[in-house]
Amino acid sequence: MMHWWSRLRPDNFTLALLATVALATVAPMTGAAATGLDHLTDLAIAALFFLHGARLPRESILAGMLHWRLHLVILGCTFLLFPLLGLAFKPLAGWALTPELFIGVLFLCALPSTVQSSIAFTSMAGGNVPAAVCAASLSSILGVFLTPLLMTLLTGAEGGIANPLHAVGMIMLQLLVPFVTGHLLRPWIAGWVEKQRALLRYTDQGTVLLVVYAAFGESVNEGLWHKTPALSLLTAALVSVVLLAIAMPGITWLSRRLGFSRYDEIPIVFCGSKKSLATGVPIAKVLFAGGSLGAIVLPIMIYHQLQLIVCALIAQRYARQNGQ
């Protein structure tokens, strides 16, 4: 019982996220310092995706790509099921959710899957790891194109995306080009990247914290906490809970209904239900300018912690069922 409760405690990264939000609230940067921070975050994001590309083994991609039915199911859950679920919360917009938080909910639903944690939980549960590597990576790459286009469809002019094609181009330049460059250089730098895996994990987290600080600092300067009622914050948290409570059992049922083995069901459940904070925050930075960015990324920050807790518990249950 104590072990179960220990899973509910926030991890160190979540505590760091909360501390970053608190720091941005009391000490946001302004003027030239804020502009310099903005340029620094752009460089950090490009470096982050360069390293993501360098870490991705080509053998895993080729092995996983053969399982096309599994990938179609995961992509359908990520980019079709979730956006439809997000639209179901539209009646809450304007009273229980501020317009910015509702856009944040839709943005959460339009994001690609995580990469590292999806693979880690699939491995922990005894599932098809090569398929998880391919599915999560494919989701992340397609998210560069699909997330801004989905946001345009879901929000229209209300989403603040004046030119979705321009947004796709900017995201490709900032995320996809470094990713592809890193992957092409993998034959020469893979050894160094593997040796620095533990250090690079903190690089991932540090980049997210940097972007969150910049986003919330700008939003605080624009009056984020004065414009966001406590009811809306509570509702955003409840929406995240409901999304995960619907998605995980629903995706599990769907994978079994389609006849997938438990070995393949595991990556479908984890890759199909998870949403990427590491990819979402940089994409949000490109898509949404101005003081609304902090409120828009709040739902994915909440969902991030929830999915880690729930997926850890489910991965342990799968492992016990598999006799691990």
Q: What can you tell me about this protein's structure?
A:
The chain has one domain: Na+/H+ antiporter like fold (Up-down Bundle), CATH 1.20.1530.20. 81% of the residues lie in helices and 0% in strands. The protein has helices at residues 2-6, 12-26, 31-55, 58-65, 68-87, 99-110, 116-125, 129-155, 164-184, 186-195, 197-221, 224-227, 230-257, 262-273, 277-287, 293-321. Helix 4 crosses helix 8 (129-155), helix 6 (99-110) runs antiparallel to helix 8 (129-155) and helix 8 (129-155) runs parallel beside helix 14 (262-273). The mean pLDDT is 84. It comes from Stenotrophomonas pictorum JCM 9942. This is Bile acid:sodium symporter. The chain crosses the membrane at residues 42-58, 70-89, 101-122, 129-153, 165-186, 228-254.
Offer a few descriptive terms:
transmembrane helix, Na+/H+ antiporter like fold, 16 helices, 0% strand, mainly alpha, membrane, 324 residues
Which helices and strands appear, and what pairs or packs with what?
Elements (H helix, E strand, L loop, with lengths): L1 H5 L5 H15 L4 H25 L2 H8 L2 H20 L11 H12 L5 H10 L3 H27 L8 H21 L1 H10 L1 H25 L2 H4 L2 H28 L4 H12 L3 H11 L5 H29 L3
Main sheet overview: none
The CATH C-level name is Mainly Alpha
Residue fraction in strands: under 5%
Helix and strand sequence = HHHHHHHHHHHHHHHH
Secondary-structure-derived class: mainly alpha
**Radius of gyration (Å):** 19 Å
- Give the overall pLDDT as a whole number: 84
Corresponding CATH architecture: Up-down Bundle
Number of helices: 16
Uncertain spans: none
Amount of helix: over 70%
The gross shape turns out to be globular
- SS elements, strand count: 0
Distance between the termini: 20 Å
